[in-house]
């Protein structure tokens, strides 16, 4: 059985060659792996790097507003194999993964998509990489959604129409809900799927990622939160209550302090909302994330503070919805880096 593998990327010259090399080193022997690299408008050497590999089909797009969904749809539509493996260009697939994923899909006809464990190649390079390594994977078994690295049956892609081509964030979970709506299962396997380099070294990158995450939560929840098991409603409520609550209490305290200085005390319930994970969940992280106390405190601090950029992402979605101005990508601002 042949497999189509679709890699997407923009300005990814630092990782695309490794990504392709790992695919070519796959142990899969039951058919051919057809590799499609879909470039979203790179201005570096990504396209020439991908074209240097024999047998790799390069699809060069130049959209005004590139999105992951646009790239993935062009990729899977270019092929014809019954199973499609999607990869981000900064992912290094494990040699045994294709075999394992194919087995999982062939053994159970109710499974429409399968994912494995993604792990950070350099979690020690920054606290942000380390956090990403903690959060990539869910519990083994049926799950609600997949990320950018997943194997999907082609008939499902044809039936659903594939990925949303407008979303700049949340396109993978959004497709996941349409797949689940058609009574297919999504399976999380407890096996290594791919290494990944988040390459997040600066606070600005952390803020941008949080902002887009919040935007994605809002965009997907407004479509599916009330129709598919309340998907992401809890996450959206958490962001709104804690991030929005902190900002609301703070602004109210500052505004009303002109009436009486005691209104500045409104800042404190806002702080409690914001730092709830740090104040009350650290021990839970020790027990359930298998972290020592210091690591659990760092992670709890992240869980406390990340709702601020996420809240502004939600706010950006609402504003864009009202004014018909959705968040857009620009190829010149997108770049895949490396930690080392």
Spell out the blueprint of helices and strands.
Elements: E1 3-9, H1 16-24, E2 33-39, H2 46-51, E3 56-60, H3 68-78, E4 83-88, E5 91-93, H4 97-107, E6 111-120, H5 127-135, E7 141-143, E8 150-153, H6 154-160, H7 171-181, E9 185-196, H8 203-224, H9 233-256, H10 267-274, H11 276-280, H12 282-288, H13 293-305, H14 307-323
Parallel strand pairs: 1-2, 1-4, 2-3, 6-9
Antiparallel strand pairs: 4-8, 5-9, 6-8, 7-9
Helix pairs in contact: 7-8, 8-9, 8-14, 9-10, 9-14, 12-13
Label this structure with key terms.
single chain, 340 residues, alpha/beta, Spore Coat Polysaccharide Biosynthesis Protein SpsA, Chain A, 2 domains, nine-stranded mixed beta sheet, 14 helices, globular, glycosyltransferase activity, membrane, Glycosyltransferase, catalytic subunit of cellulose synthase and poly-beta-1,6-N-acetylglucosamine synthase, cell membrane
Oligomer: single chain
Question: Please, what is the CATH homologous superfamily of the largest domain?
Answer: Spore Coat Polysaccharide Biosynthesis Protein SpsA, Chain A
Overall pLDDT: 93
Q: Please state the overall shape, judged from the principal axes of the Cα atoms.
A: globular
Cα separation of the termini: 37 Å
**Low-pLDDT regions:** none
Number of domains: 2
The number of strands is: 9
SS content category? alpha/beta
**What is the chain-wise order of helices and strands?**
EHEHEHEEHEHEEHHEHHHHHHH
Q: Give the CATH level 1 class of the largest domain.
A: Alpha Beta
CATH third-tier fold name of the largest domain: Spore Coat Polysaccharide Biosynthesis Protein SpsA, Chain A
Helix content: 40-55%
Subcellular location: Cell membrane
Protein name: Glycosyltransferase, catalytic subunit of cellulose synthase and poly-beta-1,6-N-acetylglucosamine synthase
Pfam family, one: Glycos_transf_2
Keywords: Cell membrane, Glycosyltransferase, Membrane, Transferase, Transmembrane, Transmembrane helix
